[in-house]
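Take a careful look at the sequence and tokenised backbone pasted below. I need to know what the token row says about the fold.
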Amino acid sequence: MSIVAIVRTSTDKQENGIEGQTQDVQRYAEEQDATVKAILTEDDTSGTLDPEKRPTLLSGINMLEKGDVLLFTSRDRIARDTDYVAYINYMVRKQGACIKTLRDIENLDVDTAALVSFMDDWKSQKEVNDLKRRINRAFKVKKDKGEKLGGLVPFGKTREYNADDKAVLVDNLQELSIIETMRSLKVERRYSLRQISAYLGKQGVVNRKGKVFSASSVKNILGDQS
């Protein structure tokens, strides 16, 4: 087992400061016959901070590999906010590692420890689901406003910037005419996708890269416009 330990204290008045925590980590590693990969110090860092604003913590998490342990001396050293604890736990699990503390969890009975782990997992999943919902809501708002959501601009649209310097999608009349030709060939003349591609190529109609439209690109464009 390899350990990345985070020692933290927000004030010198707190009991068991950085030096004491470091000694506890080293003692624990010897008892467990574990390798200490690093002991990182978060000096004058509050546990109420967003984990994204704790660079030492993020560095420690990035050092983790599968099977490693991110070690704290006690649970309140991870973070003061339970949502932040859940988020840190989520990031650590993404690395294939786990969080352990020298106190608290180790002193619990098996059933209680399992319950705590379950609650951690639940909170981590809730964090992910909440984030997904916020992202989806933001995307919907931008879409309703006609703002670009990111990625490639759909064929038939052009990216422009409004008075508020926000990217919006507006109709590209030249490309819309190509789409209309594609649709007409498919619906009225019953052309296959390959026939549409060949027809456009003979007419010198090309895509944004100056190449002939492939059958698959015709399908994608007509699908987007359906």
User: Anything to note?
Assistant: The CA atoms of residues 45 and 53 lie 10 Å apart. The chain has seven helices and six strands. The chain has a mean pLDDT of 79.
